[in-house]
Queue: 2 jobs
Job 1
Amino acid sequence: MSTYLPTLKQLQYLVALQDSGHFGRAADACFVTQSTLSAGIRELESLIGVTLVERTRRVVRFTPLGSRIADKARRVLREAEELGDLARAAGKPLSGDLRMGVIPTIAPFLLPRLLPKLRERWPDLKLYLREETSTAACDSLHRGHTDCVLLALPYSCGDVDVAELFDDRLYVAFPAKDGAQTPARVTPDAIDERHLLLLEDGHCLKDHALAACNRPELRAEAAMMGTSLHTLVQMVANGLGTTLLPKMALDAGILDHTAIVARPLDADHPSRQIALVWRKNSPREKEFKLLADLFREERAAKVA
């Protein structure tokens, strides 16, 4: 076994540089000076005897071997972090830091009700939230930036464990002036693709809505894309078209003080499944299951 091994700090510097592609931003992420980070990476290169990063005035470029070592370093750092998780999980559950990713079509509608419950039940828990699209949230999970993710299924998030929480039905929303001519439920074939407003690419709710409607042409014919559900609601309120909204957004009052009507989507699969996911074999699995139980309790209380 070699007497000289890379330090976790050196590996942290390397991973931060790979993530940011910039020495200054990587140093900021590690809370050190740029010269300290640069020196740490040079020490790592000297230690293992290879060049990991090609440096120019404008570009930071990892060598092929540097990229492989950075990926391995990421796994080593995650394993080291899980040493602390093992000790924490064996002691008081849901205490200390927990980093949770949440997608934008869930965060503003579910968390305001849940966070007070979390503080009440586990006062020693320090929950750090990271709002990202599904793709970015799953990437953050596997990179070790977050411990678990609250997202909507179906969605391929890689090798994860899943706790399904509840179904979240989709509704068709349109200006109230059109309500008199609309049945209590709306079938997919009744949706006019020329006036359909959807979230922009990257939001899984867009894919869930299109899958529920089972009309492939809607993807190409959608009139306009919105950056958030609140933006879509404003478009509908101004008579620009029709959109699809999840039940949790309606329950949270997204249509309050608007002249918009929402009707359930009458389709074979009219819902998305809200779930909590985490990396396979995480030492905090029991804690995540406790969180999932609370989410289910809160949803059941809301429905009741």
Note: The longest strand covers residues 160-175.
Job 2
Amino acid sequence: MTQVEDTSREMRLDRDSFAQGYFENAVYRHWDPYAIEGLEEDKQKLMDEDDLTEAEYEELRQTLARFGAGEEAVTEDLMPLGLVLEDINDQMFVSSQIYEEAKHTQFFDRYWRDVINPVAEHHGFEVTNPTDQRYYPDGYIQLFDDTEAAMELLLEEDTPENRAKAYCHYHLTVESVLAQTGYYGITSAFSSKGSDEVAIREFPHLEGLVEGISKIRSDEGRHVGFGMQKVRRYVQSGEVDEQVVQDTLQELMPHVANTVNDFEEAVNAVPLVTYARDKLTRRIDIITDEDAVIPDVDELVSLDTDGTAAAD
């Protein structure tokens, strides 16, 4: 039955659904990756760091390369989910999510062009591309390969369990654990927020980078909340055994750890791994505990003064 023949609804949209609420929040909070200010100042600050070593700078490039590739990958890989969702409110939200992932890709590409390469040239460092395979450890590659496979499986076998696994891969691991850990690390190293334990050396505050990260984290609060709502409903309704969710998340955690634990020159990896494991535990608790409450959308997209999001 086509949408124009659908007589089951009085109105086209359910304004009270959490998916429609997330979509409206996305429209309200729209931002332009080319309007983020402060990149010229970031570039100058990094140029003024006369004692910056190439090994230290390489870890910044490593971080941003992984973010850019990750945002590009999920932009591509989310489409199967959009194709199998039946509800127009869900479809609208996932459409907005794909658009936002594309914007995130755009921001990291801009930062590499406008800041990373000019600073490398200034210091006489090797000028590298964000697609250089040196930046991607085996665990990172496996995580995104597994996520792509979980999404594509929906086109062959669309079941509640496979949907739950797809949400676990993308919304609850890639975005909720890996990305949030990376954002926490960047905020800690390049601003006054976050943890003092992350940065080994004292970096200048990079307001342009941190502002872009803050906008991206605001978007991803919605993405994480959407996935948590979906998986929680599957578990609480009994359609999917909670052990499937726990097993899927636990199986992916080593890939996350492998992605964040290879820093040693400028960043301390230990608090990042700890942060990631704490996020994973919190996700499982919210999904499996009947009394747990997922924050509303405004809280999900807000940032606390310590640089952490409510979705954390």
Note: The first helix runs from residue 18 to 28.
